[in-house]
Amino acid sequence: MNFIPFLQTSAAAGSGSLLMTVLPFGLIILIFYFFIIRPQNKKQKETEKMIAALKKGDRVITIGGIHGVVSSTREHTVIVKVDENVKIEFNRSAIAQVVADKAEKTKADKAGKAKEGDKTPEIPAEKTDAPADGGDTEQKKD
To answer: Taking CA 62 as the corner, what is the angle to CA 59 and CA 66, rounded to the nearest 5 degrees?
Structure first.
């Protein structure tokens, strides 16, 4: 009969149509994964690693914006010294970041350069003709 060829062509067209419908959704899911989900997971792992590595003496900033120094750590909390006689206990998850001191950064940078074998020559200070007392360099004649 005439129904058999009609069923075969509609089934073939349906599978192509299904592919064209599913393909854009699959691409959207891939885009979301690579641009949103994956970077967020990486950031979360870095934060967990930073929180686990907290130790006494670290300078920290809390999610509330409080700056202080870790005076002691416990299993789920840290005690942050904010002022001379002020200590506040925070959950570890309330620590937003650990602040590296400038002195520690420069020491780390110098140590990294020394390991690389990069020896940069020091530039000597320039000699100036200005007097030590900060006066004018020109002398007045009488």
So the answer is: 80
The answer regarding whether domain 55-108 maps to CATH 2.30.30 reads: yes
Rounded to whole angstroms, what are the CA distances from 52 to 5, 73, 77, 81? Answer: 67, 10, 11, 19
Phi, psi of 26 (to 5 degrees): -65, -40
Strand extents, DSSP E, the chain? 59-62, 67-73, 77-83, 86-91, 95-99
Helix (H/G/I), strand (E/B), else coil: 23: helix
For 15-41, how does the pLDDT look when each residue is reduced to its tens digit (9 = 90+)?
A: 678 888 899 999 999 999 999 999 999
pTM over 0.90: no
Can you give the residue ranges of every domain in the chain? 10-53, 55-108
